[in-house]
Amino acid sequence: MSQPNDDHPTWTRARAVVPRGVSSGHRVGWKQVFVRTEGAYVWDDEGSRYLDYLNAWGPIVLGHSDERVNRAVYEAVSTCDLTGVGPQRGEAELAEKICEVMPSAEKVAFCTSGTDATMHAVHVARAATGRLKVLKFHGSYHGWNDHVAVGSSRKDLNANSILNTPNGGGLHPAVVDDVVVVEWNDRAGLEAAFTTYGEELAIAFAEPYIHSFGCIPAQPGFLELLRELCTRHGVVLTFDEVKTGFRAAIGGYQSLCGVTPDLTAFGKAVANGYSLAGLAGSNALMGHLGAYDRDQATIDGTYNASPYSLAAANTTLRIMETENVHQRLWDLGARLRQGIAKAIDDTGARATVDGLGSEWCVYFRGELPTNFREAMQSDADAYGRYHASLLSQGILEPAFPTGDRRLNAATTDDDVDRSIEAVHTALLAAQT
Ligand code: PMP
Predict the structure, then answer these.
(1) CB 204 within 8 A of CB 135
(2) Distance, CA 253 to ligand 1 centroid (Å)?
(3) Which coenzymes or cofactors are required (predicted)?
(4) Element (H, E) at 254
(5) Which residues of 215-250 are buried (b: 16+ CB within 10 A; e: fewer)?
(6) Is 21 exposed, middle or buried (0-12, 13-18, 19+ CB in 10 A)?
(7) Enclosing H/E stretch for 375
(8) Which residues contact 136 (CB under 8 A, 6 or more apart)?
């Protein structure tokens, strides 16, 4: 298996002309350069093969380089690539399917990334309510717009740290000041935030099942409380289903948990690796997406609803439905989590595992975390040893302890069983 290599020529070359050598933060820390993908596997440029449990941080759900999806994309670009005029080929078909399967969707607008989708959600909510403030949960990531890139910093996490610390530099302080950050699963904190800011809040964001810092469900009644408070105070409840949408279930986590938001931001798994995202909501709310009107929100984008991304998404959803892909994802995920839990027992490692469907996280702490602060108490050194051991056994997982990991539907039972053995070895390595 290849070793991390600071002197890798591709990295050296990239670092000379691209800040830090990458165009997306989490790509740092990886010394490998991947050059081939197929099914459940990725290959680096030295020919080493890895079982992929990163899956591009979410999009790859059917499997890498799925021929059926790629063929649909090729057919789309070779027939009518991009015109920038009128409804795009496949646009109504995809919107109709999403309205059929996703409880909150009566209308859908498409864009290219989760960051776009959450930005449009804020604009729609502000246009609809005439208010400015945004509520979000501590640690949840919703992209890099100023009004959400707050309160997810992994630094300064001592007990006194201020929750709405900006996630990075260059954010507008006045916008950041308008963000109210609440600890996940903190009922009293949530009620207090609505008592203080309820009439100023335009929007409340929640990942209905946390994937930003591992895999953390809402405690019983928490999503229902959030729904009730938003309704009572006229706040637009927005589920960020960028990770859960089309992966936990075709209709998103909202189709499983029974709580329906007003707006839904989605992306990632909808198009199996092609850049398509979107915003869904009621006719009334989505009616605030107008064009160039001072009182309306606007959606615009050269690549929005590109025919090739629509072809990828329509094909992905068709395969999900006809091949019962979610049953497969859930079965594989359950088999893996059970195996990991047994490996934890067998090795006596101070670790826990939790997850949803095809996603999971192993925490190096005695108990499952219920919020960001607790998740960040996972032992980073132990995780580092665990991660290095898995990598050396040909398994690719996130490089930081609270990264959620996921499998795709091309993974086999044998892959899962081999991973459980590798996890056993890695848990022993973590304890040394
Ligand atoms: N929301 C969530 C929950 C996410 O996980 C992400 C990306 N990891 C985003 C929003 C932003 O999506 P994108 O990277 O497509 O801009």
Answers:
(1) yes
(2) 16
(3) pyridoxal 5'-phosphate
(4) helix 254-257
(5) bbbbeeebbebbbebbeebebbbbbbbbbbbbbbbb
(6) middle
(7) helix 372-375
(8) 142, 148, 150, 151, 179, 180, 181, 182, 204, 205, 206
Q: What is the pLDDT along the chain (432 residues), one digit of tens a residue?
A: 444 456 799 999 999 999 999 999 889 888 899 999 999 999 999 999 999 999 999 999 999 999 999 999 999 999 999 999 999 999 999 999 999 999 999 999 999 999 999 999 999 999 999 999 999 999 999 999 999 999 988 776 665 566 888 899 999 999 999 999 999 999 999 999 999 999 999 999 999 999 999 999 999 999 999 999 999 999 999 999 999 999 999 999 999 999 999 999 999 999 999 999 999 999 999 999 987 777 889 999 999 999 999 999 999 999 999 999 999 999 999 999 999 999 999 999 999 999 999 999 999 999 999 999 999 999 999 999 999 999 999 999 999 899 999 999 999 999 999 999 999 999 999 998
* Nearest atom within ligand 1 for CA of residue 113: 15
- Spatial neighbors of 215 by CB under 8 A, at least 6 apart, are 209, 354, 355, 356, 359, 360, 361, 404
Is the minimum distance from the CB of 115 to ligand 1 under 6 angstroms? yes
Q: Which domains does the chain have, with CATH numbers?
A: 9-65+324-430 (3.90.1150.10), 67-322 (3.40.640.10)
Backbone phi, psi, residue 361, to 5°: -145, 140
Ligand 1 center to residue 144 CA distance, Å? 9
d(CA 209, CA 204): 15
Task: For residue 119, give both structure tokens.
Answer: 């930005």
Count how many Cα atoms sit within 13 Å of the Cα of residue 12 in the half-sphere of its side chain: 5
The one-letter amino acid code at 123 reads: H
Is 207:140 a contact under the CB 8 Å cutoff?
A: yes
Please tell me the number of Cα atoms within 13 Å of 286 on its side-chain side. Answer: 20
User: What's the whole-model pTM score?
Assistant: 0.97
Q: Is the CB of 264 under 6 A from ligand 1?
A: no
State whether the beta carbon of 145 lies less than 6 angstroms from ligand 1: no
ipTM value for the complex: 0.99
Residue whose CA is closest, atom 12 of ligand 1? 114
